[in-house]
Specification:
215 residues, alpha+beta, 5-stranded mixed beta sheet, two-stranded antiparallel sheet, 6 helices, 13% strand
């Protein structure tokens, strides 16, 4: 049996899903809820693995983990519609996600954080991925770090790389994140006034917004 993924004809086996075929052929489709141990019993609830069916099935967006292969099926995994649909799904997941990253057992190895970065979503703080968590965390050493209030690198000294983090996007405005941040700063003896002054590197207006939200 043959299907087409991103204009490339691929041989597959009856009973496979598009996601399984993609994984077998090194085609990247993001996932959150997929687990190969579930066999054919995938919920498809996260819908992060959406692909667009172009030919040979129900035309439109379908989760690749539940989309069975069929002769003549053609799908796209990387056009603008797919990108925007996945981005919307990630934003919905993030809106329901209680963000307490510093206490997360994944210790920075966070698939949600990675996907938010890949799809340019402002929402997961640097601490979700920071290698300096726990005993090497800068905050626990009483060193001001903007990681809890920024996303996509924080500009602080990174003990893993031995240099300053680069590429900081902006200050976060998610109340869960800022609530956690304010608590973390207080517990480690760092004044929010100092954090706000440091955040002025992004813009005076954003640092004022940060002050208002964390009062």
């Amino acid at each position: 049996m043959k299907i087409i993924i991103d204009d490339k004809e691929i041989t597959c086996k009856p009973g496979q899903t598009v996601l399984e075929v993609a994984l077998d052929n090194n085609i990247d489709i993001p996932t959150m809820c997929y687990n190969p141990l579930f066999g054919k019993h995938h919920s498809g609830t996260c819908r992060v693995c959406l692909v667009e069916v172009l030919v040979g099935g129900k035309i439109g967006m379908e989760p690749a983990c539940n989309l069975a292969v069929a002769e003549g099926l053609a799908v796209s995994t990387k056009n603008d519609k797919v990108y925007n649909a996945r981005r919307t799904m990630l934003e919905l997941l993030l809106s329901e996600h209680v963000q307490d990253c510093r206490n997360c057992p994944s210790s920075g190895n966070c698939n949600l954080a990675r996907l938010c970065r890949d799809y340019d979503i402002n929402g997961v703080p640097v601490c979700a991925e920071c290698p300096n968590q726990k005993e090497a965390c800068l905050l626990t050493k009483k060193i001001l770090c903007l990681g809890p209030v920024t996303y996509a690198n924080c500009g602080a000294y990174c003990t893993r790389l031995g240099e300053r983090c680069e590429g900081c996007h902006s200050v976060l405005f998610n109340k869960d994140v800022l609530g956690f941040a304010a608590k973390a700063y207080k517990e480690n003896g760092i004044a929010m006034a100092d954090v706000i002054r440091a955040a002025q590197v992004f813009s005076f207006e954003k640092s004022r917004n940060l002050e208002q939200i964390t009062k």
